[in-house]
């Protein structure tokens, strides 16, 4: 494997090339002169395993800086970084020249945007592909989650700081100042986009030139609204179904960013370029950094705490999300919401990874963009307020509602929120059709009376008399975070005898009270399952069922 002469943080591409050339040489000897790299398409030749060993077995993870908005201009390009973000858009695949033959030596361009070597023309080469994801900081991410993976201070890392601005790339053949080139040759562009339909493929090997103008997206903002910055992540050797929209992922890979570099210019003489949609034009490398991923992992809420529990996903049955229980606290007015409501939301922020407070005013409903939509002209998914990571918590303040009229957009937003409340799904607008996307969002509404706009599963009169002082320390907060992440992820089952007893009691309750419906009985069962989970139990017992019945009695008594 690669020797200690390679700085895996400061020069990761050196290790990538060394492992490739060594493996290619060995494969050539075994193949007797045939193409030694044909088998590398869509596969790792050992480079990723080498970095996994460094990161997780040799404690190298703490040496890798975390890329964020505050250090975007401080980290040196072509170094190893970590980036945590939500997959906001899936941009399809991109073809690139993954390997080519330089004389008698096979070289690779994997994990780079530009070849560190001069590519002879013509030459033997292989066209590979990689997945493109536009990622943004997770919406509503609370500050305590950022402390779980601080990384080193880049301001003190001499290997990641530049003493002066990088010189503008020269177009006359001079070498760039990248620390990945061993021969000083010019870089060559490797870009070509994979069309959405069958068709010809463009492969460009000319140097990137500065474009005079870049098409606007979201009013000229290259980063998504409300986000500090975004990142275009390129993932290799991955099945299509492993990463999904709105997943929160930690990517570790090679970072590239050049504020002076514009998007690749198109050749006006190539008529085939008109048939290929290049969505990355909306995300120029001078505005949005790139990360070529070597190692990645999905993040769940429990990954932000120091004692992660064992997680098993909750079930979703047919069209009803099991475990769904939206709450409506009544008895609030503007004054009490500003006191008790703000105190409650502040506590929620300290306990869950993602949370947002939404002012439910007529103006907000008429103007807010809640629904994510596809812009078919740019090929981009334009985010909306309801494009959220799994496990988010939303608090709606309905005390701000006044007499007024809803516009068509206001009505549409109201229907989106009702759909979210009732089915835990969000409608995504793809212009010619709409697609329901399953989500997992906890919902709390604060209102004066029972909300007619947001029909919650459970209405609870809220009658506070004082604001308690919350002085929990970091260890206590961490314990509560661990508890909530653990009990929320516990699977639930019920013994046949217990389920039969509960069913008989439900039938009896419906016989005594004709107003009870299936939704009410389903809510009771969900509450019983949550009650069992709150005790750390995976099986629903009759004791838990009796507790829920008593809670329901007390709730109805308070509502009278």
Question: In total, how many beta strands?
Answer: 22
User: How many whole angstroms does the radius of gyration measure?
Assistant: 27 Å
N- and C-termini, Cα separation: 74 Å
Classify the helix fraction into a percent range: 25-40%
- Shape call: elongated
Low-confidence stretches: 157-226, 266-277, 309-313, 315-321
Whole-number average pLDDT? 80
- How many H/I helical runs? 10
Strand content: 15-25%
Oligomer: single chain
Class of secondary structure makeup: alpha/beta
Sheet with most strands: strand arrangement:
1-4-7-9-8
Subcellular location: Nucleus
Protein name: Mini-chromosome maintenance complex-binding protein
Biased composition (Basic and acidic residues): 164-173, 182-201
Region (Disordered): 144-219
Description:
By secondary structure, this protein is α/β, with parallel strands linked by helices. The chain has ten helices and 22 strands. It has helices spanning 12-31, 47-57, 143-146, 334-351, 362-367, 408-423, 474-488, 496-512, 518-534, 542-559, and strands spanning 79-102, 105-108, 114-115, 125-136, 188-189, 192-193, 231-235, 248-256, 290-298, 316-317, 320-321, 327-330, 355-359, 373-375, 380-382, 392-397, 425-429, 434-438, 441-446, 458-461, 493-494, 539-540. It has a five-stranded mixed barrel with strand order 1-4-7-9-8. Strand 17 (425-429) and strand 18 (434-438) form a beta hairpin. Helix 9 packs across helix 10 (542-559). It is elongated, with a radius of gyration of 27 Å. It starts with 11 loop residues before the first helix and ends with a helix.
